[in-house]
């Protein structure tokens, strides 16, 4: 039945508002109208001497009929209205965000499908049909629906814009041509559109050409990026292998030095023990002879005394020890001094060589931006930068032929710095700044490693073993070491490096290297401490640190106990005094002690806890993110109960569930932060690699009825 009603919905349409009947009433002639519509219509007929007519059949009524609601028609209209709502999923649906609404619909409007440029109205399918029925025989310009009908109307004359004024470059209506645009160069909108269409085609052609160029540049850039990734991976693997070999080599030399010290100790002990035994035997003999003499001195028998005196009066024979000198204060302290000197040398060399590596890495640039405007001022790269790819070149070659000296990449750090500077800088107008050293005169950046045909020169220092100096390093070079380990020198001031002297004699290059390597290997423990991380729990515990909680930072709902090594949340506020470092909203507490080197600690937790490290400068007052652990760039937090890590308000889900005991490891200088599950085994939960700029302080956040204990 609903389908039959839907097919005859024009029978239930008000001929006045062209919409479904609302509160339908039936006139004596049989036509139906909305109560409001027919009342408004007859109200306008009041001046016709009390004669009222049907808007459709024009049948007249005198006096004005009393209107009564037609309940049967009202029920049918309601069924039809429900049917239309159910059909809203069809293409003719209600207007949503971004859709153009039908201007003729009342209540909830349907989506318009066409717009009439004459009526300046948009219609849905239903009202479009009514529109077409009403304008039969007339020419109306009906176009696809547009929500910009008002833009097509002249704001001055309220007429359709049909003409384009080339003089004023604006669209005008016909009335405008007879007024302010009279005598101007005007054409129809269609004519101007044709010309602009041709111009649009040319613009599109240029745009497509530029698009192709950009796509090619993007392809080249992607190729360069892939080459860079491959080269970087190879460099990382090679570096790992080389450093591993270095560590193993130093490990072997450490054993050799240890054996050397033990062998020297054993030889000296053997000699000392032999002499000690000899001295002990002689002392025993002398004591025995002294006892005999003492006994003889007390005898009263003169004859026995005289006979015995001759045999005991001569001292026992002993080895001449006058040529033996015992150095009571002789220790291996000189070895320690030598190792400390070598440690300093090693660190200086590491700084220098690491900077070389840094320069070599920084010279790996795949995008070169060349400046074409010499008069242009330097522009901050972060302000007002306009991308212009016309001067971009991509270094896509990962390797060069070793025989091609002109194209092969140079391993000389000076070349790398020069290349890097030319790539990243515009024309230089001021002194060159490298590190903290300004160079205002033309200089050359010379690597401190001498050429192959020059004498070996080691850093100016002294390395001694025992009391004899093993190395005597030459001095007198005129080059000035920069803060990054390179030498800045004028070409004409170059000085020939002097040779190394060993035990006062000039050393061969290989001999000098051997001695230097021997000294270098003795510092393996320091090198390993600087470049390797602990693996087992026993190794981590070597870096164990003792922390105490700072009561001046604790929220008043946190109770400290066990020597400020345990904290728990309680409902009752503590009577802590006001303090500028106290968190007044976040349920958090910091430790008194900070971390600036390597440190490891363990905690036990229960409830809802997050374990954090933070700079001391973290905000303490308020509920903003600047105060919460992990919500800013000054803190890092592990949320144990929810198993996620947060820093700078960025959350990372943990692969494992946190155990009730957590280990925290910090290597401040290396920028490493790691959290571990501690049980029968030690399992990594999360690791962060960053750069720490200030001392770190352990901290904890607690939820209701939670607790944390420092172990």
UniProtKB/TrEMBL annotation:
<keyword id="KW-0863">Zinc-finger</keyword>
<keyword id="KW-0391">Immunity</keyword>
<dbReference type="InterPro" id="IPR003877">
    <property type="entry name" value="SPRY_dom"/>
</dbReference>
<feature type="domain" description="B box-type">
    <location>
        <begin position="149"/>
        <end position="189"/>
    </location>
</feature>
<dbReference type="GO" id="GO:0005737">
    <property type="term" value="C:cytoplasm"/>
</dbReference>
<dbReference type="InterPro" id="IPR043136">
    <property type="entry name" value="B30.2/SPRY_sf"/>
</dbReference>
<dbReference type="InterPro" id="IPR058030">
    <property type="entry name" value="TRIM8/14/16/25/29/45/65_CC"/>
</dbReference>
<protein>
    <recommendedName>
        <fullName>Tripartite motif-containing protein 16-like</fullName>
    </recommendedName>
</protein>
<dbReference type="InterPro" id="IPR051051">
    <property type="entry name" value="E3_ubiq-ligase_TRIM/RNF"/>
</dbReference>
<dbReference type="InterPro" id="IPR013083">
    <property type="entry name" value="Znf_RING/FYVE/PHD"/>
</dbReference>
<dbReference type="Pfam" id="PF00622">
    <property type="entry name" value="SPRY"/>
</dbReference>
<dbReference type="InterPro" id="IPR001870">
    <property type="entry name" value="B30.2/SPRY"/>
</dbReference>
<dbReference type="Pfam" id="PF15227">
    <property type="entry name" value="zf-C3HC4_4"/>
</dbReference>
<dbReference type="InterPro" id="IPR006574">
    <property type="entry name" value="PRY"/>
</dbReference>
<feature type="domain" description="RING-type">
    <location>
        <begin position="14"/>
        <end position="58"/>
    </location>
</feature>
<dbReference type="GO" id="GO:0008270">
    <property type="term" value="F:zinc ion binding"/>
</dbReference>
<dbReference type="InterPro" id="IPR013320">
    <property type="entry name" value="ConA-like_dom_sf"/>
</dbReference>
<dbReference type="Pfam" id="PF25600">
    <property type="entry name" value="TRIM_CC"/>
</dbReference>
<keyword id="KW-0479">Metal-binding</keyword>
<dbReference type="GO" id="GO:0045087">
    <property type="term" value="P:innate immune response"/>
</dbReference>
<feature type="domain" description="B30.2/SPRY">
    <location>
        <begin position="527"/>
        <end position="711"/>
    </location>
</feature>
<dbReference type="InterPro" id="IPR001841">
    <property type="entry name" value="Znf_RING"/>
</dbReference>
<dbReference type="InterPro" id="IPR000315">
    <property type="entry name" value="Znf_B-box"/>
</dbReference>
<dbReference type="InterPro" id="IPR017907">
    <property type="entry name" value="Znf_RING_CS"/>
</dbReference>
<keyword id="KW-0862">Zinc</keyword>
<feature type="coiled-coil region">
    <location>
        <begin position="197"/>
        <end position="296"/>
    </location>
</feature>
<keyword id="KW-0399">Innate immunity</keyword>
<keyword id="KW-0175">Coiled coil</keyword>
<dbReference type="Pfam" id="PF00643">
    <property type="entry name" value="zf-B_box"/>
</dbReference>
<dbReference type="Pfam" id="PF13765">
    <property type="entry name" value="PRY"/>
</dbReference>
<dbReference type="InterPro" id="IPR003879">
    <property type="entry name" value="Butyrophylin_SPRY"/>
</dbReference>
